[in-house]
Amino acid sequence: MDAFAVSVARGITMVRFQAVRALTIAFFFGFFQAIMPIGGWFSGHSLRNVISGFDHWVAFALLCIVGMKMIYDALKHKENRIRRTSLNFLALLGLAIATSIDAFAVGISLSFLQVAIILPAIVIGLITFLLSFCGVFAGNRLGHFFERKIELVGGLLLIGIGIRIVVEHLL
């Protein structure tokens, strides 16, 4: 659901819907949601204590940075709108990692339960891919209807997701 929410937020920033960009975003999120549980599964118990100590802070920082940029962009003048549609490789990589860190922990849990990881990882990846593509599409349609207000809400939503991740880990 985090990847879906971020996909909606990214769709909001598009001036017009571009299927290639939506597929790229969906691929990144789907790929990382599939690969992270596999990485967690292989890491198993040995890294559990190390990762659980800071994973939520990394996700929080990445989501807040992107969310603050979206808020900043929403408050800029309209003539700069086209520049906001770009999503470079590093930003997309950061978002994909931030939204899939918890999947790494799921992989660790599945290794403790001695569950085979390949089928769950494929299902997680495919569902995330589909939801992310739909999220970009929905965000693009809503974004044009509400203009800057929805982008501001999207930025606040990303920051909220980051805060939720930290609160869940601290409680």
Ordered list of secondary-structure elements with their pairings:
Blueprint (H helix, E strand, L loop, with lengths): L1 H11 L6 H25 L4 H5 L2 H21 L13 H24 L5 H29 L1 H23 L1
Helix pairs in contact: 1-6, 1-7, 2-5, 2-6, 4-5, 4-7, 6-7
Task: Describe, in plain words, how this protein is organized in 3D.
The chain is mainly alpha-helical and 171 residues long. It has one domain. Helix content is 81%, strand content 0%. The protein contains seven helices and no strands. α2 packs antiparallel against α6 and α4 runs antiparallel to α5. The radius of gyration is 16 Å and the shape is globular.
**Terminal CA distance:** 21 Å
Mean pLDDT: 81
Helix/strand class: mainly alpha
Query: What is the H/E string?
Result: HHHHHHH
Question: How many structural units, i.e. domains?
Answer: 1
Rg, Cα atoms, Å? 16 Å
* Weakly predicted, low-confidence segments: 79-85
Percent helix, as a range, is: over 70%
**Main β sheet profile:** none
| Secondary structure tally, helices | 7
How many strands? 0
Strand % is under 5%
Task: Write a concise synopsis of the structure shown.
With 171 residues, this protein is mainly alpha-helical.
Keywords summarizing the entry:
mainly alpha, 171 residues, globular
